[in-house]
Amino acid sequence: MSAQSLTSPTPLATALWPTGADSNTQAMLRFVALTIIGAALLAISAKIRVPFFPVPMTLQTFAIMGLGAAYGMRLGLATVLLYLAIGALGMDVFTSSTADNNGLSYMLGSTGGYLVGFIIAMGIIGYFAERGWDRSPFKLFGLMLGADALIFALGLLWLGTIAGWDKPILQWGLYPFIAGDLVKIALAAAVIPAIWGWMKRR
After folding, report:
1. CATH number of the domain to which 98 belongs
2. Domain span holding position 86
3. Which of 3, 10, 16, 157 has its CB surrounded by the most CB atoms within 10 Å?
4. Cis ω on the peptide bond leading into residue 54 (within 30° of 0)?
């Protein structure tokens, strides 16, 4: 780990796993390995349910936000696209998917807008993380809050289009999840700068 990586706008994952400046092979292997690890974390986080009020929460928002900040834009987008590709092939990797309800039919269902939102949110967070926003918990919290609002906006738009706007869309797709998402965003916005601080102290 170089001193320059701690002060320049470098994604956290790159600083934690540096490669030789002239080693394109090492850099590619790192990219592939981190993409696979990240996709696995997204799948695992979707299935973890934590007791919360008013509904149990999964850790997926935390994983999306944290990986976006740690990976940067290119690696983050590759990770979420791999995750969605695995889901499209029929693997049970989504929060409410099952052995019988999965694949493209699930993805085009009521949660489709949120999945699209994951892609855009990952790109936005990664873009600004590469420009140093991941070093400040306050900047990162605001960035993640905006990205989360975008996920909900796309999710609700999709949900309303499918279910009908005469249904209680906000009660179904927004209100029960606000408190949990605020907790997960605050945690992600604290963890990433804390890791940077620990690296600098070392």
Report:
1. 1.10.1760.20
2. 21-201
3. 10
4. yes
**49 pairs with which residues across the strands?**
58
Name the nearest CA neighbour of 84 among 128, 114, 50.
114
Does residue 7 belong to any structural domain of this protein?
no
Amino acid 65 reads M
Whole-model pTM: value is 0.92
Scanning 92-177, the segments in alpha helix (DSSP H) are 103-107, 112-129, 137-163, 169-173
- Domain membership of residue 10 (yes or no) is no
The answer to whether residue 83 sits within a structural domain is yes
Question: What is each CA distance from 84 to 43, 67, 131, in whole angstroms?
Answer: 9, 15, 26
In a domain, 106, yes or no: yes
pLDDT tens for 84-115 read: 999 999 999 999 999 889 999 999 999 999 99
* Phi/psi at 154 (5° precision): -70, -40
Token pair of 51, please?
């007791």
- Cα Rg of the chain (Å, integer): 17
CA angle, 42 then 39 then 177, to 5°: 20
184 pLDDT tier (thresholds 50, 70, 90)? very high
Phi, psi of 50 (to 5 degrees): -110, 130
